[in-house]
Design a protein that fits this description.
Distance between the termini of chain B: 40 Å
Largest interface: A-B, 30 and 34 residues
Structural class of chain A: mainly alpha
Number of strands of chain B: 0
Distance between the termini of chain A: 18 Å
CATH class of chain B: Mainly Alpha
Structural class of chain B: mainly alpha
Number of helices of chain A: 22
Strand content of chain B: under 5%
Order of helices and strands of chain A: HHHEEHHHHHHHHHHHHHHHHHHH
Mean pLDDT of chain B: 83
Number of strands of chain A: 2
CATH topology of chain B: Helix Hairpins
Radius of gyration of chain A: 24 Å
Shape of chain B: elongated
Number of helices of chain B: 4
CATH architecture of chain B: Orthogonal Bundle
Oligomer: heterodimer
Low-confidence stretches of chain B: none
Chain lengths: 551, 118
């Protein structure tokens, strides 16, 4: 039992890898087999993520004290071998990814006809890359996992082809290839200056660097930071994002909404480790001041984009940009409790944009007849107890079919989440960020940046409300030839599940903020992480196994 | 040797970036390839340049690190070459798809904006 559990941290990488590879063995025509494999793998991934989140809360102190699980992949001690490290932050991100993956997969199943070859395998590899990036403990494997997720995303962004997708995909691939080279330059500079790639070891070695090496190291960190910011969708390196996300197939775009958070995660992780290691704080792009300014510009761009977007999926893509901007600003401001609040915002905004991407595609269907909709003979998402519209005595008001009601309510819920209005978790998240900003010092001596944050976050929320109201009016009220779409349960259910999760997040805000707050605090005291990684010993389990073989 | 090496990386990077910013997709892919060569050489150089040093510790020579080459950048550069090659090949496919769909090889799939520019 316990020997199995010790291997738990590697499961989120192994499960999608094996599943994705296994699906390649079956011909494209054996769709059912592939679907079953994909569903089982995604469910298993979710189960592993939940178990890891439980373990990271310190629930298994005998195996993983402090809730930090270090998995030595090759059995070599930490700075020499490759490690996977799981702490609260990684666990939260893993769980978020697993939830998003499951819902997007179910949504994608509804329109398998539209999916090109190997969609399922690419999807699993994308999950593997994201999970691996959240778990890895060294810089080069971060690069490798980011490449895995990017390579899968290149395939997915082109899914369904079409001129618009190929154009957006061309830009997306070009900029991300260039970004990967920047990433490599940063990693190798850091290696050249410090002689290590393990993040914990790096943090431990930096204070002892000679002056010349230190300059090289900080240059490397700055270059690496640029690559992370590119992945995070930060201004001025995010002009590819709205086009690529706006053009991708909706379930793909929904999982993409966590991809920008990989960049944020890397910034958080490395920034936390490096800030502990040097007297002068973290190097440039991980530094608070830089992040704040970049976040402000990103938020401004995202907000302007939301106001100008003509098409709903593009609007959601700009919501992703705006959420990245808010996060970068919040992290840039720093202060006690801010990291926990920012993580809460991250979770809430990823769920919201994921649901919104899928919803926007369903709403687009109300705008005109699509051949595929008319041709699909499947049962619609219309409950049987819908009142008969032909009854002569019901003349007051217009009967709204259940599908339209569902779309409308979901749109309102998404709008509330994105703009941060009560009662959903978007409000709680923005409230937490704004109140955490106030606790950075006594009220009279608060720095001006706090008020800049307040103004920017509230202003962008107001602009978001305007943009989303206009979009809602145009989509639901003003068009004459609106078509009631036929929705299938497996299309509507993922959106409903994601939105219910945000309701749960708002209702259970207490426990959620406790967990995320502790994750934020652990980021502020990275010594526990560094010690856990460097003190980890090769598998205790091997002795059991040897005993087992001996018997 | 360091000067020649650094100049080679510099020339490759400079040409790569210039080509990357050109409007034709073929120029972009050539630029990306040149950049990847530059980056691979750069990673290699980060393990310190040495002539005749083996990356594996020899039983006959003593275990003095200065006699040996650093094996880690070599392993890294191998991974980087594989990944760079694969993604560039994928980009080539997208380039061809774009050429087929839009009928021209402009990065924006729009010949007019190119003509206005040149």
């Amino acid at each position: 039992m316990s020997s199995w559990l010790q291997h738990l941290p590697v499961f989120p990488v192994v499960i999608p890898l094996v599943a994705g590879a296994a699906m390649l063995l079956f011909a494209e025509a054996r769709r059912t087999t592939r679907t079953v494999i994909a569903l089982i793998a995604t469910l298993a991934n979710l189960a592993a993520a939940v178990a890891l989140a439980y373990a990271a809360s310190g629930a298994m102190p005998e195996m993983w004290p402090e809730g930090i699980a270090v998995y030595l992949l090759g059995g070599w001690k930490a700075p020499f071998g490759i490690v996977l490290v799981l702490d609260r932050l990684s666990a939260v991100m893993l769980m978020l990814n697993a939830v998003l993956a499951l819902t997007s997969l179910v949504y994608a199943l509804a329109r398998w006809k539209k999916m090109g070859p190997h969609f399922q395998s690419l999807f699993q590899f994308l999950i593997m890359g994201v999970n691996g990036a959240f778990l890895t403990g060294d810089l080069f494997n971060l690069f490798v996992f980011v490449e895995v997720l990017l390579a899968a995303s290149y395939g997915l962004v082109l899914h369904g082809l079409g001129e618009r997708r190929v154009k957006a995909g061309l830009h997306y691939i070009a900029i991300n290839l260039a970004g990967s080279f920047v990433f490599l330059i940063g990693v190798s500079l850091i290696y050249g200056a410090t002689g290590t790639l393990n993040m914990a070891d790096l943090a431990a070695r930096v204070p002892a660097l000679a002056q010349g090496d230190r300059v090289l190291f900080e240059t490397g960190a700055a270059i690496l930071g640029v690559a992370f910011l590119l992945k995070a969708g930060a201004w001025p390196l995010n002009f590819w994002l709205p086009a690529a996300y706006g053009a991708a197939a909706p379930p793909v775009a929904a999982v993409f909404s966590i991809m920008t958070k990989v960049g944020i995660y890397a910034l958080l992780r490395l920034g936390s480790l490096l800030s502990a290691s040097s007297v002068s704080g973290a190097p440039a792009p991980f530094n608070d001041g830089w992040l704040f300014g970049i976040g402000l510009a990103t938020l401004a761009l995202g907000t302007a984009g939301m106001l100008t977007a003509q098409q709903s999926q593009r609007l959601v893509a700009y919501c992703v940009v705006a959420s990245a901007g808010t996060l970068l600003m919040a992290l840039g401001l720093g202060g006690a409790g801010m990291k926990g609040a920012a993580l809460f915002y991250l979770v809430s905004s990823v769920l919201a944009t994921g649901a919104f991407f899928m919803l926007s595609e369903m709403i687009e269907r109300t705008q005109q007849f699509g051949e595929d909709i008319a041709a699909e003979p499947f049962e619609s998402f219309v409950p049987e107890d819908l009142p008969d519209l032909t009854l002569p005595d019901e003349v007051v008001g217009i009967a709204i079919p259940a599908a339209m009601a569902f779309l409308g309510m979901s749109f309102i819920a998404c709008a509330l989440l994105v703009t941060g209005l009560p009662p959903l978790s978007g409000f709680v998240a923005k409230f937490l960020i704004l109140s955490a900003a106030l606790t950075t010092g006594p009220l009279e001596t608060l720095p001006g940046s706090v008020w800049v944050l307040w103004a920017a976050v509230l202003g962008s929320s107001l602009a978001g409300i305007i943009a989303l109201c206009r979009m809602g009016v145009r989509l639901f009220w003003s068009s004459d030839d609106i078509v009631t779409p036929r929705l299938r349960v497996i299309e509507a259910a993922p959106v409903a599940v994601l939105l219910l999760l945000t309701v749960g997040l708002a209702v259970g805000a207490g426990p959620a903020t406790d967990y995320l707050g502790l994750a934020g605090i652990s980021l502020s005291s990275p010594h526990i992480y560094i010690d856990a990684v460097l003190a980890s010993n090769p598998l205790q389990v091997s002795s059991h196994e040897i005993e087992g073989i001996g018997q | 040797m360091e000067i020649v090496y650094a100049l080679a990386i510099g020339v490759l990077t400079g040409s790569g970036v210039w080509l990357l910013l050109r409007p034709r997709t073929f120029q972009v892919i050539m630029g990306l390839s040149l950049l990847s060569y530059a980056v691979n050489l750069f990673i290699f150089g980060m393990g310190r340049l040495a002539v005749g040093g083996a990356p594996i510790i020899d039983a006959i020579k003593q275990a003095d690190p200065s006699l040996y080459d650093d094996p880690v950048p070599q392993a890294l550069v191998l991974t980087a070459i594989v990944i760079g090659f694969a993604t560039t090949a994928l980009f080539l496919v997208v380039l061809l798809a774009s050429r087929g769909l839009t009928g021209n090889d402009h990065v924006d799939g729009d010949r007019d904006s190119d003509e206005a520019e040149s």
